[in-house]
Amino acid sequence: MRFCRSDFPPDFMFAAATSSYQIEGHAYGGAGPTHWDSFAATPGNIVRSETGAFGCDHYHRYAQDFALMQAAGFDGYRFSTSWARVLPEGRGTPNAEGLDFYDRLVDAMLSHDLRPMATLYHWELPAALADLGGWRHPDIANWFADYTQVIMDRIGDRMFSVAPINEPWCIAWLGHFTGDHAPGLRDIRATARAMHHVLKAHGTAIQTMRAMGMSNLGAVFNFEYVHPGDKSAKTAQAARRYDQAYNHFFLSGVFKGTYPAEVMAGLEPHMPKDWQDDFALIGTPVDWCGLNYYTCRRVVHAEGPWPAWADVPGPLPKTQMGWEIYPEGLCDTLRMVQREYTQDLPLYITENGMAAAHDPQREDAARIAYLDDHLDAARQAMAMGVPLQGYTFWSLLDNYEWALGYEKRFGLIHVDFDSFERTPKASYHALARALSR
Ligand code: IFM
Asked: For 195-218, what is each residue's pLDDT tens digit?
């Protein structure tokens, strides 16, 4: 790799990320069913109808995974806790086995010199709450606060950092507007409610953890750098609409106490009652902001009702996901977030990485170049004054890529999904060398 640890400030953190449903093996340890299980059981939703039942068997193999992280020289591990493992019905009686598991997991992180960076919700809603309307239900923020209390009562004393929600846009938009993710709805009223309730849940969780005396609490958003796909004025407007919905709506709610006009032009008639009164809760101060960045998007005008956009393919090299590789967008996004929303607040890159098909020669050259180019972009942003304090690679392991099943390989470590054998890839070794210098 072109970079090494000493190119960054001494306290800059290098971490790797995963999430509970994608790796743990949801079938183990008394976890309750989630809306991803029902989504997967419905034909046509998921490639080969695969589920997170066995994941990477991290539930049993976490010590091996943490030993690999420690050997590579990582400083932190970004993981998530599963609501349905902690509270199988979403509310009510906790699952003692689930709490014991997270207790052991956190102790194992610490004993491998990994700072625990927790996320409380990375997409697997307990099915019992989905039955009640899930993210559409006005009480979900209170249910989420109760779950936050239960899990943080058990592990909150050992956290380096906590963020309540991973990628609000994916939860609300992919789950309720396009229907690509669980619960698979295509309904604008459900979308408007989910977009707002997910931020209320963020706020109630932050307040719950503050009341417990916890610190280093943040928020994690996902970003795509948006290019207009042609030169027309209508496309310029569509691209701006997409940018506002994807990149600004949630940040604006948390840091400015308002939603962008271009987005409310479509969503306002569908918003929950008195939504304007919730911004004090949504804007409860946080200690840092996390950015997940992978790619750019080219948006054009499309005839039809709001949002009237479509995306078109671009010319740049693509990952196994078909996502264009555009590191410049990471630098611009970091600068935009600082300039428009967070100013002096510490920023972290909480996810960045690429999927690449299994490479029997084990050269993994594209992933190594992706890492180098995005770390260069991060350094450029830092040189321009962005207070970036850490970089988190997605993902430690090949894992369950949601509706795309197990074939999209994002890991630094190859996983054989029959034997669960782990094999570090060339990118893992390159990163380990870079982190040792
Ligand atoms: O695998 C996902 C992860 O769950 C959330 N962020 C994007 C990753 C790659 O698609």
From this structure: 999 999 999 999 999 999 999 999
Mean pLDDT by 10 residues, the chain (437 residues): 97 98 98 98 98 98 98 98 99 98 99 99 98 98 99 98 98 98 98 99 99 98 98 98 98 98 98 98 99 98 98 98 98 98 99 92 91 98 98 98 98 97 97 98
CA dihedral (39, 192, 348, 388) in degrees, to 10, reads 150
Nearest to 178 by CA among 170, 168, 167, 186: 186
Q: Whole-angstrom Cα distance, residue 195 to residue 417?
A: 34
Cα gap 184→285, rounded to integer Å: 32
pTM above the 0.90 mark? yes
Distance between CA atoms of residues 60 and 396, nearest Å:
16
The SS3 of residue 298 is strand
Distance from chain centroid for Cα 370: 19
Kindly give the distance from the C-alpha atom of residue 401 to the centroid of ligand 1, in angstroms, as a whole number. Answer: 7
CA distance 301 to 311: 9
Question: Any alpha helices (H) in 183-260, and if so which ranges?
Answer: 188-211, 233-243, 249-256
CB 403 within 8 A of CB 47: yes
Atom index in ligand 1 nearest the CA of residue 321 equals 10
Tokens representing 240 are 């701006």
- Integer Cα distance of 164 and 154 in angstroms: 16
Q: Are 151 and 59 in contact (CB under 8 A)?
A: no
Give the binding-site residues of ligand 1, using a 6 Å CB cut-off. Answer: 19, 22, 167, 292, 351, 394, 401, 410
Atom number, ligand 1, closest to the C-alpha of residue 394: 8
Query: Are 267 and 244 within 8 A, CB to CB?
Result: no
Q: Please state, in angstroms and rounded to a whole number, the distance separating the CA atoms of residues 117 and 80.
A: 8
CA proximity to 392, closest of 169, 220, 228, 243: 220
Side-chain-side CA neighbours of 147 within 13 Å: the count stands at: 28
